[in-house]
Amino acid sequence: MKFKELLQQKNVRPYVLAARFGLEKESQRVTFDGQLATTDHPEVLGNRSYHPYIQTDFSESQMELITPVANSIHEMMRYLAAIHDVTLRSMNKHEMLWPLSMPPRLPQKDEEIKIAKLDQFEGVLYRRYLAKEYGKRKQMISGIHFNFEYDNELVQQLFSLQTEYTTIEEFKNILYMKVARNYLRYRWLITYLFGASPVSEPGYFTEREERPKEPVRSIRNSSFGYKNNENVKVSYESLQHYIEDIHRMVENGILSEEKEFYSAVRLRGGKQMADLPKTGVRYIELRNLDLNPFAPFGVDEDSLGFVHLFMLYLLWADELEAPNDWVATGEFLNEQVALGHPFAQVKLMAEGDRIFAEMNEMIETLALFGAKKSLDIHHAQLRTPDLTVAGKMWTIIESNSNQDLGIVFGKEYHDMAFERPYQLAGFRNMELSTQLFLFDAIQKGVEVEILDEQEQFLKLKHKNHVEYVKNANMTSKDSYIVPLIMENKTVTKKVLAEAGFTVPTGDEFDKLEYAEQAYVKYAEKAFVIKPKTTNYGLGITIFKEGASLADYTEALALAFKEDSAVLVEEFMPGTEYRFFVLDDQVRAIMLRVPANVVGDGVRSVEALVAEKNLNPLRGTNHRSPLEIIQLGDVERLMLKEQNLLVTSVPEKDQIVYLRENSNVSTGGDSIDVTDTFDESYKQIAIEAVRALGAKICGIDLIVPDKSVQGTKNSRTYGIIEANFNPAMHMHAYPHSGKGRHLTMDVLRMLYPEVFESK
Amino acid sequence: MKFKELLQQKNVRPYVLAARFGLEKESQRVTFDGQLATTDHPEVLGNRSYHPYIQTDFSESQMELITPVANSIHEMMRYLAAIHDVTLRSMNKHEMLWPLSMPPRLPQKDEEIKIAKLDQFEGVLYRRYLAKEYGKRKQMISGIHFNFEYDNELVQQLFSLQTEYTTIEEFKNILYMKVARNYLRYRWLITYLFGASPVSEPGYFTEREERPKEPVRSIRNSSFGYKNNENVKVSYESLQHYIEDIHRMVENGILSEEKEFYSAVRLRGGKQMADLPKTGVRYIELRNLDLNPFAPFGVDEDSLGFVHLFMLYLLWADELEAPNDWVATGEFLNEQVALGHPFAQVKLMAEGDRIFAEMNEMIETLALFGAKKSLDIHHAQLRTPDLTVAGKMWTIIESNSNQDLGIVFGKEYHDMAFERPYQLAGFRNMELSTQLFLFDAIQKGVEVEILDEQEQFLKLKHKNHVEYVKNANMTSKDSYIVPLIMENKTVTKKVLAEAGFTVPTGDEFDKLEYAEQAYVKYAEKAFVIKPKTTNYGLGITIFKEGASLADYTEALALAFKEDSAVLVEEFMPGTEYRFFVLDDQVRAIMLRVPANVVGDGVRSVEALVAEKNLNPLRGTNHRSPLEIIQLGDVERLMLKEQNLLVTSVPEKDQIVYLRENSNVSTGGDSIDVTDTFDESYKQIAIEAVRALGAKICGIDLIVPDKSVQGTKNSRTYGIIEANFNPAMHMHAYPHSGKGRHLTMDVLRMLYPEVFESK
């Protein structure tokens, strides 16, 4: 099978870089001084029996982070970043993740290394067997498993260009066996470039044990790492041989189960290895990447990008020896490289140069011009060992210590996760509510897929239960007509009024002429003129004590500029509060105050604004819970109306407003007042939302005096608006008052079974 | 109580013309030659036991049309028009409504006049009693009952300005009693202006009976009309007297029930008359309007506008005699006027002039300048009797016959209802689907209220079951997330693909640069470039045999002009069909063909288009099932590409397309092909809609060859799009093929109980 030729065919070319990726990353939980954590796996992470993203590996302290399968490395890394963020923020506040493959200093007594407390006794039994067979300390090594799948279209196109194999499954098996053998043959290069376990902590190797001459490139990838006993031997000649050998060893008791076979690669497909000939190998698992301490998540995109090119090269490159010789040579070379000194020149320079030359030829032939840079960078490292990961590590360890390295980097990555705790790494470009909601789903182990990123469209899945969610608040729980009712102010008012709630009385007009004729009805009242569909307060005029015909007409013209329909409405005096109602409960009540500063008698408005903007909750473009206060034209005009300049110094405790409107999006303050409200108002909000038929609703009530008890059929309140897409992030991280975790309430409403199952 | 002064107060002025209106109109069903219909009440109208709009009065042939309560006469008349349309189109195709108050020529034998076949035996018994007490023929007279209620705000304002009465109920009773007495006193003017029963048909009066000297102004409003026996006497001095008198008569057996008390007015409020003192009179029922044969619906807006002013005048004007004298004078004067010759001058000229003078004074004082015209028109009729309704009728009857009058006008109004059977009178400004849906709701007796006319937002009610509907297809039956899925092409495709359906493969790009990089993937394929959100086909380019890089880039730029996200998608060859799926059934399949004409070898394109546009189904602005074919720039360009001009003469049977796109909105033809499709395709459409979770969906399938059986996991079809707001009117009245009444299916889905109850 001449893959090199097939890959150059016209129909194949568009797909050569198409692939699917997945990753598992292990890490030990440790205290800030580098001691193995003695706490249990965080309870807040839900149930380990099904958690798709966060599991425990061998020990209770050993986290295993699992990304979903993605169509690009970039996409996969976003998930890894997010899962990292969730894991760190879900852990005990005084713990971090150990950034090294080699475990931190371990307790002296083996009993203090606790096996993962799984629900399934089977899993516990297997770990007990491993502890006995290999020793607990070996099992504490961590690393990365990278799952790689050639794109289906690529495989299909290759298959269709040949005649030797008649089924796609057979063809895939041939393909993956070739790649596996080439990987084992050339993997020394991966060990050289990315090996990252140069030294062990005292006590890792027992006194009696043989041990490597540290520092090396990778203890983990050497014979001193985590590997099967000598008598485990597998042929890679064909998939059939491979399966038969493993089967035989399981039957003879050399291995306890198939999965005890440790190799740098594993062929994956059906549920059991025996299924592979029928189902075809679906993907290959690369198991030899050490944790890179210089990458916040243990691995970086550039390295994986190189591995991706390497995988294409392994398909491209011919094998030069008989299969088992080829693999055996590779094993031998890898051991040499793994145990070499991190600063030492590798002895395989000629073969290394050949590999890079062939890779360069490949990318030129296939016109993968974007790949050149990655090849050059990694090729350079072949002659400069101190640029490899192990090299860089040894530079630090030599003048400090391995433990220092682990603690400093571990702490840095821990702090990163708490810098902007309202955001979720990997998904910072999405709306904040969706970031919060993604956090919750990942934490509770509900599978989440992003169907449309720009549109904040998610698919959730737990077992067979699928839900689609948009903007983190639009769900299957509301009926289609309900948001349409709420979107329409006139209809909302009619529905609420018919159900006996107090709403401002008023009229809707679609012609200026008709609106003018109604003047006499409003002339002497407090009233508001507004476009039917409002947009950040544009076109609204409030007349608190009636209006002259001229003012009335002018205000109408202003409103008609914004919309073809205009509402003239009674003005209800009082303070406006946002009641967030979800599933028949008021989950939060918020007061929004226009952008403002409070004087101290010393500093200028400008200085006060600058200080207020230092709050890490303030940001721009709706990616923070609060927005930066601007000092633009609108704000300066507002100051001018108060006879102030940006340089004016307000008196102590003087509140200076910089905006008329109270939107958080224009720098307003959000104040949680949920617990200060009488139950009677909450009941009114709940019943009004029920009358609208909504499950999730932000309903705005004007309350003249909240110290008075609210009653439905009275003027103790008035309902101004019902919002079908209410902001949730401002409740989670308010300017003052208690934060309300509403996205978790949405998740609970959608997946009660996940919350009950613990 | 000086109402005249109260009405002039500042706080009252805005509300003087505010009122609520309702109307009941009786009409006999007759054949086109004026014979009483012998058929039963139309079964298609559903169940009379609750029908809010269409009932039967005394006889099985006597329709009673009932409008809902409205805030303006205009609004009320829209409903009357609509109910009329529904009634006529629901009747036997060879029947019409008799446009006169006096019945058509009646069968000789009383037995042939059939009492309404009501389900409730009580109702039947009461009608049997009436037949015995008054004779069946008298009960066959028809007329209009007009319900009038002064606006609540008006009454409240008046109430708050006086101190004499302490409860609003007491005040309302005083108010309505005054108005009732004034009405009875001055109603001769209404009889004069609007009386419309000048003659009876032979056989209406029996030989032995006393009869008026025909022609008169109004038999119905005279002592020869439908009135109680002489011994029925009621005092109008106060509400208490009024109630006591009626009660006494019922107890003494002079009346069988309260409702047997016939008077020109009735005071209405609580469930029973006895409740009135407590509940207060809510409205007044005016019972003396004859059917006006010159108004298509038996009464016109102008006349009712005058009655409205008259009602305000009755509140304004002082009573000049003691209550019962005042009423008795009115009864006497009315009898004189009713029995006067239609052409005769009325003897009450002075009083008439006084009434108009006072009304003029009133509208001037209250600044109701818009009312002047109506007063002038009706005042002129005081001196010109042949301009009154009775006068105009006698002009025709004299030279033809009463029966001719009834037949000619009845037929004209009947034909009006069938002129554009897809529209609904009164609501022609709404979207066609909503008109069809309103028709269905009125026909089946589901109460319907228009919450927002521009937005096609309806509230439906049957007993306690409320539903809200927008665009006739957005209902509570779909969940919120479903239309959001369908609105998003990328998400729709992902959901369908994951469920195993065939959709075009492709990519979404939000940057031109990324899209350009994908060129190699599409270069050799058949593919389409389109904006993610399409709008009448703008920005779409189809490459049926691959594309050059230049063409590819140009097409991308075109698409990015329309949207910030662009899809590059495999092109699926075949014909596109719209499957309309509702409640797990395919209700219609439609083929849409671009605007076209078929040549006859004689006429020009222009002439052929003109002829095709004669089809009454074609109109403009989406208010017809098909649109007029234009001959604008786009069409001329399309002709030019075929080397044709609008003056060219196509050959016989040559199909000339005038548009590339097949939208019905640009003159395309809609062809129903529901019955030509194999069940397999219907099943695919149903399952795909189920996968999307939708109850109502217009799903577009590309089918290469519909003679081949469709299978889910194959290229026998491809799903292009799923529409959450699918047009329904084009299915109801297609260009060719069978019409599908989809709006009725929506109504059935919402109200199964209404369809089961028959």
UniProtKB/TrEMBL annotation, chains A, B:
In the N-terminal section; belongs to the glutamate--cysteine ligase type 1 family. Type 2 subfamily. Residues 1-338 are annotated as: Glutamate--cysteine ligase. Its EC number is 6.3.2.2, 6.3.2.3. It catalyses: gamma-L-glutamyl-L-cysteine + glycine + ATP = glutathione + ADP + phosphate + H(+); L-cysteine + L-glutamate + ATP = gamma-L-glutamyl-L-cysteine + ADP + phosphate + H(+). It is an enzyme of class 6 (ligase). Residues 493-751 form the ATP-grasp domain. Monomer. The lineage of its organism: Bacteria, Bacillati, Bacillota, Bacilli, Lactobacillales. Its cofactor is Mg(2+); Mn(2+). Keywords: ATP-binding, Glutathione biosynthesis, Ligase, Magnesium, Manganese, Metal-binding, Multifunctional enzyme, Nucleotide-binding. Synthesizes glutathione from L-glutamate and L-cysteine via gamma-L-glutamyl-L-cysteine. This is Glutathione biosynthesis bifunctional protein GshAB. GO terms for molecular function: ATP binding; glutamate-cysteine ligase activity; glutathione synthase activity; metal ion binding. GO terms for cellular component: cytosol. It comes from the Bacteria. Pathway: Sulfur metabolism; glutathione biosynthesis; glutathione from L-cysteine and L-glutamate: step 1/2; Sulfur metabolism; glutathione biosynthesis; glutathione from L-cysteine and L-glutamate: step 2/2. It holds the Pfam family Glu_cys_ligase. NCBIfam families: glu_cys_lig_rel (TIGR01435), PRK02471.1 (NF002688).
